[in-house]
Design goal:
Elements lengths: L7 H10 E11 L9 E11 L6 E4 L3 E7 L2 E2 L7 E4 L5 E10 L8 E5 L6 E5 L22 E7 L4 E4 L5 E4 L4 E4 L13 E4 L2 E7 L2 E7 L4 H25 L8 E7 L5 E2 L4 E5 L10 H16 L7 E3 L5 H19 L5 H7 L1 H9 L14 H4 L6 H17 L1 H15 L2 E3 L1 H12 L4 H8 L5 E8 L2 E6 L6 E10 L17 E11 L3 E4 L10 E4 L7 E3 L6 H7 L6 H16 L5 H14 L3 H18 L2 H18 L6 H11 L3 H11 L3 H13 L5 H10 L5 H11 L3 H13 L8 H8 L5 H14 L8 H10 L8 H11 L4 H21 L4
Parallel strand pairs: 1-10, 16-17, 17-19, 20-21, 22-28
Antiparallel strand pairs: 1-2, 2-7, 3-6, 4-5, 4-7, 8-9, 10-13, 11-14, 12-13, 15-16, 18-19, 22-23, 23-26, 24-25, 24-27
Helix pairs in contact: 2-3, 2-4, 3-4, 3-15, 4-8, 5-13, 5-15, 6-8, 8-9, 9-10, 13-14, 14-15, 14-16, 15-16, 15-17, 16-17, 17-19, 18-19, 19-21, 20-21, 21-22, 21-23, 22-23, 22-24, 25-27, 26-27
Length: 826
């Protein structure tokens, strides 16, 4: 029988009926030292508001015994245990075993290939705690949790509350943790293994970071940065929310084979892929900072105040994503955080919001399976951008006051969208009902353009717009008063902003006043400063000039806004890959923000590789490669530029120069080998030698990536087996290997695997939400297919789990747009 997904109706009924007093969970991890079993005893103390009523508890692990108030219970095969004839006060005790700790949900056992040591992590969002022990697995039934963990004697155990009592047993140690504050089941955690641990005191907090022993040198290298960011983040959020983090201990645990990061209260779990084996680039360092701050913001948005049901997932994720950029710019050295958001996540959100899986930020969620499908670009980057617009709309001080009131009212309980809107409305003095309906209950993206009649400028929406505040920037060339001396070559020039006019939009046509006269202007930039979530279009008369001027704008944000317009025009078929590629490559060479160069380079390379017609691909790729060679002359940009060249080198001179520049840089050598393999070079022996000298415990994945790129049938078969069938590649590395596997100009080799992807769709959901999203999206073929294949994939998705269906539909729509662009039509 299929494990049932909890419905909203069932959750509401159970939430109205029950109140959970506490969880006492006894976990035995000793079987994981050389086996696969986790044994748990979950004791749940709860009350029932209607004595005599019946309900159920969730447990998708194997149940060995279950009793309610001393009487035996019989589990079913659908992941539930019926609870008949409840008393006013109840004690439930369930003994369970989870034996699938390799591909199962909730708990994972990883073996470090460097030394054979075992590490265990647990991760429960959205409803995966039930796969490990019995619980009421819904967000609004919050309760204190007390964990007692028995583990092998050499292991360290971490959990939410910190400061455990540790007892030495005959052949193990028992860790007894204090009660947590009231938490949802999905916010709890236990991690264990022979970790390397570093601790620091900061502003009254006891901060800890952990990693597997083989990565101890990397953790030591990054420790100062991690502790600095943690201290800065805790101080910032404690101030702006008027509520300091209420626990002394705050741990962050980096573990192998984990996807992303998870905001467990007081004990954040990270993929140890964030501990970069090579020296991090500026963009990688900024990403580390933003993820750290995102998970930290969840201590308030999600842990202290929790959504009542999954239709308010955005209350967690959008707010955490917004808050991490807010905190990064205000409290850390990463002052271009919003600019990099625009260059990365926001562009993905624009594309998703115009595709088949666009949905309102807030929407009814029938069950948890549906909820797993909305951890997406709408909930995250669009949601963050909409909240940035909301702060602009009401003013930052009033926004902060509303947040303060919200946390004061709802701490340690659950809340709804209306609770938040009420708090912000009261603090701002603005009626936000219209704003709420337009931005949160309505899907889609506004689009703006400008009409100019002499010196009269009007902002025009393509449809009825949402209420919002945005800005129009007016730019001209240095010293312009109508002329550049008759010279049409404007390369290298920088535009100056002559005016910035804020406009509050309430209708389709909005006058823009306060701009300089038309004769004094070269560019009018809609959504300057990137204050709202909307796409824009230049007027037809200045379209080509706009594409050229994007690189001449003076700031990372203004260039980013122009780049977003160019990109959106490419994805909608209004610009060619050649036009977009030239414009964005020019922006790349002009960019001054370290955090933006890397995503801009990725965008330019993606256009050349994935969007350009076959006859133009080599030329556009060569242009990006040449830009990389120029950028490499700047020592501050050298690493990023050489990585870009490793992706785009198209001739022996580029490859030879890259090898010379790489020297002993193992990371760059791996990247160069991938490119040489793709181009048909015999790199097997060199790859084997590099694998021997690479100290990275996961270097075998780099070697597999080299094989994935080879235009060789045996290599493709081997990699597909390990990647898609055996799932031997850690989930955080699937995208890297898949990108090397699906290469252009290898269609004959790749054709059989396009069908194998279709055949795998019914099984892509196994392993839980994160693996489902990764495998459904990253394995989708961008090459060796045609529009008919897209239709077949979309048809097959209808029978898939919701998270697989939405991921597949979104990815297939993007690839459909790529195929259209490759035809060379606009």
């Amino acid at each position: 029988m299929e494990i049932r997904s909890l419905t909203r109706t069932e959750a509401e009924r159970r939430g109205a009926l029950l109140e959970v007093e506490r969880y006492d969970v006894d976990i035995d991890l000793t079987g994981l030292a050389d086996g696969s079993e986790v044994r748990c005893v979950s004791t749940v103390t709860f009350s029932c508001r209607e004595p005599g009523a019946e309900s159920f508890v969730d447990c998708a692990a194997e149940v060995r015994s279950a009793t309610l108030n001393g009487g035996s219970l019989t589990p079913t095969a659908d992941g539930r245990i019926a609870l008949p004839t409840l008393a006013g006060h109840n004690v439930l005790r369930v003994e369970s075993v989870q034996a699938d700790t390799t591909t199962g949900q909730g708990v994972h056992r990883a073996i470090d290939p460097a030394d054979g040591q075992v590490y265990v992590w647990m991760s429960f969002e959205p409803d995966e705690a039930r796969f490990v022990w019995a619980c009421f697995d819904q967000p609004d039934l919050k309760a204190p949790h007390a964990f007692t963990v028995t583990a092998p004697p050499a292991w360290t155990v971490t959990s939410n509350s910190g400061d455990p009592r540790i007892e030495q047993l005959e052949s193990a140690r028992r860790w007894t943790f204090p009660d947590t504050p009231p938490l949802s089941t999905y916010n709890t955690v236990v991690n264990a293994g022979p970790f390397h641990e570093i601790r620091r005191e900061a502003d009254g907090h006891d901060l800890g970071i952990y990693a597997r022993r083989s990565l101890a040198p990397i953790l030591e290298r990054d420790a100062d940065e991690l502790f600095t960011l943690t201290r800065q983040g805790l101080a910032f959020f404690g101030e702006v929310f008027a509520m300091p983090f209420p626990q002394r201990k705050y741990d962050q645990v980096f573990v192998p084979e984990f996807g992303g990061a998870m905001e467990n209260y007081g004990c954040v779990t990270w993929s140890d892929a964030f501990l970069r084996r090579a020296t991090p680039t500026p963009a990688e360092s900024e990403l580390l900072a933003k993820v750290l701050l995102h998970e930290m913001a969840h201590m308030w948005f999600g842990n202290i105040v929790t959504m009542r049901w999954w239709d308010d997932l955005w209350l967690n994720e959008a707010f955490a994503e917004f808050a991490c950029h807010w905190a990064a710019e205000r409290a850390t050295r990463y002052t271009d955080a919003w600019a990099s958001h625009l260059a990365g996540g926001k562009l993905r959100a624009y594309l998703s919001d115009q595709g088949p899986v666009s949905h309102p930020i807030h929407q009814p969620i029938h069950d948890v399976a549906q909820a797993a499908s909305i951890f997406d670009n709408i909930t995250y980057p669009k949601g963050a951008s909409v909240l940035q617009q909301l702060m602009t709309y009401v003013g930052e001080e009033r926004f902060r006051a509303g947040m303060t009131a919200y946390f004061a009212r709802h701490a340690w309980s659950s809340a709804t969208l209306q609770d938040l809107i009420d708090a912000l409305s009261e603090a701002s003095g603005r009626d936000l009902d219209t704003w709420r309906t337009a931005w949160l209950a309505t899907a889609g993206t506004d689009r703006f353009s400008l009409e100019r009649d002499g010196d009269t400028v009007t902002l025009v929406a393509a449809d009825i717009p949402r209420p919002q505040v945005l800005a129009v920037g007016a730019y001209s060339r240095n010293g312009k008063n109508g002329s550049n001396g008759g010279n049409d070559d404007t390369s290298g020039e920088v535009l100056e902003r002559r005016a910035l006019v804020r406009v509050e939009v309430t209708q389709t046509r909005t006058p823009v006043t306060g701009l300089p006269t038309e004769a004094d202007l070269d560019v009018l930039l809609i959504n300057d400063e990137d204050l709202t979530f909307a796409t824009t279009r230049p007027d037809p008369a200045t379209r080509d000039a706009f594409f050229r001027a994007a690189a001449q704008l003076p700031t990372a944000i203004s260039r980013g806004v122009a780049t977003a317009t160019v990109w959106d025009m490419l994805t909608t078929g209004e610009a060619t890959a050649a036009e977009a590629g030239r414009s964005i490559t020019a922006v790349l060479t002009a960019e001054t923000s370290d955090a933006v160069i890397e995503p801009c380079l990725t965008l330019a390379a993606n256009i050349a590789e994935l969007w350009a017609p076959e006859g133009e691909r080599v030329g556009l790729t060569a242009a990006v490669a040449e830009a990389c060679r120029r950028l490499a002359a700047d020592s501050g940009r050298r690493q990023v530029a050489l990585r870009g060249l490793a992706r785009t080198a198209t001739n022996p001179d580029d490859l030879a120069w890259l090898r010379e520049q790489a020297g002993d840089d193992v990371d760059l050598l791996w990247r160069a080998l991938v490119r040489e393999a793709e181009l048909g070079g015999d790199v097997s022996a060199e790859s084997a030698l590099l694998l021997e000298r690479d100290p990275d415990p996961d270097a075998w994945v780099r070697a597999l990536t080299v094989r994935a790129a080879l235009p060789d049938p045996a290599a493709k078969a081997e990699v597909w087996q390990k990647l898609a069938v055996d799932r031997a590649v850690p989930v955080n590395s699937v995208g890297q290997v898949a990108a090397a596997f699906w290469r252009p100009d290898q269609d004959d080799l790749l054709k059989p695997y396009t069908q194998r992807y279709l055949d795998s769709i019914p099984h892509l959901h196994r392993g839980g939400m994160i693996p489902a999203m990764v495998f459904a999206g990253q394995l989708f073929p961008p090459h060796a297919i045609d529009p008919t294949y897209i239709e077949e994939a979309q048809k097959a998705s209808h029978e898939a789990a919701p998270v697989v269906r939405n991921t597949l539909l979104e990815r297939s729509d993007t690839v459909r747009r790529m195929l259209h662009s490759r035809t060379g039509t606009t």
